[in-house]
Amino acid sequence: MQFHEQLTNWYEENKRDLPWRRTRDPYRIWLSESILQQTRVAQGLPYYERFIMRFPSVEALATASEDEVLKSWQGLGYYSRARNLHKAARILAAECGGEFPRSYDFIRALPGVGDYTAAAIVSFAFDMAYPVVDGNVIRFMCRLHGIFEEATSSACKKQISSILQKEIVLSRPGLFNQAVMEFGALACTPLSPLCKREPPQAELFPGFPARNSPGRPGSHTRLESGPKGGALCPFAGICHAFRHDVVSQLPVKKKKEALTLQELHYLLIADSEGIWVRKRGYDDLWRGMFDLPTLPERHSGLESNKSLETGSGRGSRSKKRGSGASGLSAFQGTGYLAENLGATQEGLRFLKHYTQTLSHRRLSIFFYELDARSALAKQVLATEQGCQKIAYQEIGNLAVPKNIEKFFADFESRFQGG
Ligand code: SF4
Fold it and tell me: What does the pLDDT look like over 270-308, one tens digit per residue?
């Protein structure tokens, strides 16, 4: 039996039942692939279902406002995905009547669509022979073929793509791509690949027709290397990593970049009518979303600390981890700010400290309450761009970053009408 047949047989027996697998609608496939980038299936599933209910077609997404789209995406992170979906839907509506053309090149040129997403859409929806190369596929293929290129490099992806191209044309492209992705996701996993798992006792019992016995579909030669001999993996007999006992060394990972540490100092300024929020600019983190006004740096008590580099916006400071500076540690607890800063600024009171880790940065986030009548509040609201007052009942309609959502939830009783 050929590789593509073994793989698709395995898939038919083991695949998960997921809503986007029950459709060939390119819009739904595109949406599911966009959600699943950087997001686990269990977390992405409810978002997918809500998004489809709210925006059932390209046309519906194209005519929505960006605020509505961001609000539906809230909590998933990587908000550029939502903004790109929205932009691409407008292009499809304007140029193709809301339909996806059967063209890899057109789809690949849409905002936010890379090689992987374009291949997924055209293969799943139209059975066009473009192989998908995502993280799961890379891991499986690097191990199977003994590829020692760094996993995210273009050399590695090119090599894998050309191997898969030869197989995909022999099979049904959509089915083949689903199968290779699913095998990477469920079987050739990072820490517990099939070849390292304990087979059921029946498979080891002499005389029982074991999965790898000769003549049985998916059979392979039982090897000595590895404690369980790879009995559960149909590809153990041809897998380079398994045969050479280098499974844990593949795929070759890139060295992790140092995390940037960044502080944010948010101000809760409110009166009986509502609270002041800030719409973030289009050139920074969480662009286009709403958060709160921030404390000017000269009031944060940090200006004398030369070891911290200035962050991307007012009220934020950042530095690379491991630069040798010790300043940040002084602010990681809440004690310093509560005791020193709150006591020296009239009308300012420390409320809460959170931390949040994003892909390349770790945030240390401080929230304070500031009396709306104070001179500092007047100064902040007069100088910081994008500030506006909203009624308490409107808070739930705003697209906000995760840390602001958490703050609103933790202090819910404060936002019930002043
Ligand atoms: S033998 Fe192990 S490493 Fe090789 S493909 Fe199977 S599960 Fe992956």
Answer: 998 899 999 887 766 788 889 999 887 655 544 333 333
Neighbours of 24 (CB within 10 A): 12
Q: Report domain extents, the chain.
A: 3-185, 260-415
Among 11, 222, 235, say which to mutate for ligand 1: greatest number of ligand atoms within 8 Å of CB: 235
Protein residue with least CA distance to atom 8, ligand 1: 188
| CATH of region 3-185 | 1.10.340.30
215 CA → ligand 1 middle, Å: 21
Q: For tokens 């499809």, name the residue.
A: 92
- Which of 120, 121, 129 shows the shortest CA–CA distance to 101? 121
Residue 257 among the catalytic residues = no
- Asked whether 39 and 11 are in contact (CB, 8 A), the reply is no
Verify whether ligand 1 is closer than 6 Å to residue 331 (CB atom).
no
Q: What is the CATH number of domain 260-415?
A: 3.90.79.10
Q: Global pTM? A: 0.70
Taking residue 71's Cβ as centre, other Cβ atoms within 10 Å add up to 19
The 3-state DSSP composition of the chain as helix, strand, coil percent (nearest 5) reads: 45, 15, 40
CA distance 238 to 250: 16
Contact 280, 290 (CB under 8 A): yes
